[in-house]
């Protein structure tokens, strides 16, 4: 016999509200429908659950016993539901993204998604750590890595490339950069690992002896800002500097680029990818990232 979930939830709402009329308003149905559902659940269990009066309803002993058994379950279900549905009726997607990706890509492109999906809105958190998607209220994480996360599913988005950039003012003060070894005449802004420039020089077979390093920033966006202020050359993911290259705050020094080992991935619990809103967003994200990378070529 199927569980009478709708009628049980109606019982829960009526017991919480203490009045049929209030419950009808909350559930968006008529008071008659509420009475019918309560009568159905009482007939099913063979027990009277409410005492009706002019002031509303109150629970019988049987009603109190049932209320005690179902209230925590339905309260938890409501909490889970409200995580994804806002007060305006829109589906809420909670996204965790690296700060630089959120700034350089999401802020610039989400408007096009919102135009096609007006029933979805976002809460975006920016942090470098991988959120615990099993226990934290995060639906989807966007991370730069190998895409291998135990118990989670990853969807490949894009693999940005490393390019050398600098501010026009800084470049005017030095000899032109025509070869990779010419970068050694400048202060170099490292990433948080301190390995990016060393690997880049090694890949180009340059014997980089005692390079001059500037400030290392954990956030790639801060590295971009420092480079645009003339504090040194940056070896940066091309997706991070689209706007700076377009408006002339930064210049790409060498025509070649060096692909990074890692890629960006959309990461979530396997079942989360089956949710319609998540499926629509990931599909859009893959397409938008592909267009973004094509424009960088």
UniProtKB/TrEMBL annotation:
One biological process term in Gene Ontology: DNA-templated transcription
Keywords: DNA-binding, Transcription, Transcription regulation
Gene3D superfamilies recorded: Periplasmic binding protein-like II (3.40.190.10), Winged helix-like DNA-binding domain superfamily/Winged helix DNA-binding domain (1.10.10.10)
GO molecular function per UniProt: DNA-binding transcription factor activity; sequence-specific DNA binding
Annotated HTH lysR-type domain residues: 3-60
Alphabetized Pfam families for the sequence: HTH_1 (PF00126), LysR_substrate (PF03466)
PANTHER family, per database record: GLYCINE CLEAVAGE SYSTEM TRANSCRIPTIONAL ACTIVATOR, HTH-TYPE TRANSCRIPTIONAL REGULATOR
Protein name as it appears in the record: LysR family transcriptional regulator
Organism from which the protein derives: Ruegeria pomeroyi
């Amino acid at each position: 016999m199927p569980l009478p979930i709708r009628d049980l939830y109606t019982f829960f709402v009526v017991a919480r509200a203490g009045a049929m009329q209030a419950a009808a308003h909350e559930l968006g149905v008529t008071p008659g429908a509420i009475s019918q559902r309560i009568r159905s659940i009482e007939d099913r269990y063979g027990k009277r659950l409410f005492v009706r009066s002019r002031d509303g309803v109150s629970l019988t002993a049987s009603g109190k016993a049932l209320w005690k058994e179902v209230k925590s379950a339905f309260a938890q279900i409501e909490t889970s539901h409200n995580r994804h549905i806002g007060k305006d009726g829109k589906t809420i997607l909670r996204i965790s993204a690296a700060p630089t990706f959120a700034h350089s890509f999401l802020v610039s492109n989400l408007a096009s998604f919102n135009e096609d999906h007006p029933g979805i809105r976002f809460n975006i958190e920016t942090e470098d750590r991988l959120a615990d998607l099993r226990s934290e209220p995060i639906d989807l994480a966007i991370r730069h890595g190998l895409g291998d996360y135990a118990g989670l599913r990853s969807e490949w988005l894009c693999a940005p490339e490393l390019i050398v950039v600098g501010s026009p003012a800084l470049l005017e003060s030095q000899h032109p950069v025509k070869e990779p070894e010419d970068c050694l005449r400048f202060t170099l802004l490292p990433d948080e690992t301190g390995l990016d420039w060393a690997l880049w020089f090694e890949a180009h077979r340059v014997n980089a002896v005692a390079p001059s390093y500037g400030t290392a920033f954990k956030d790639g966006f801060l590295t971009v800002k420092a480079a645009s202020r003339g504090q040194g050359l940056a070896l940066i993911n091309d997706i991070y500097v689209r706007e700076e290259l377009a408006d002339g705050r930064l210049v790409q020094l060498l025509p070649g680029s060096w692909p990074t080992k890692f890629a960006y991935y959309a990461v979530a619990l396997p079942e989360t990818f089956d949710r319609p809103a998540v499926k629509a967003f990931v599909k859009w994200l893959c397409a938008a990232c592909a267009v973004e990378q094509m424009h960088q070529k």
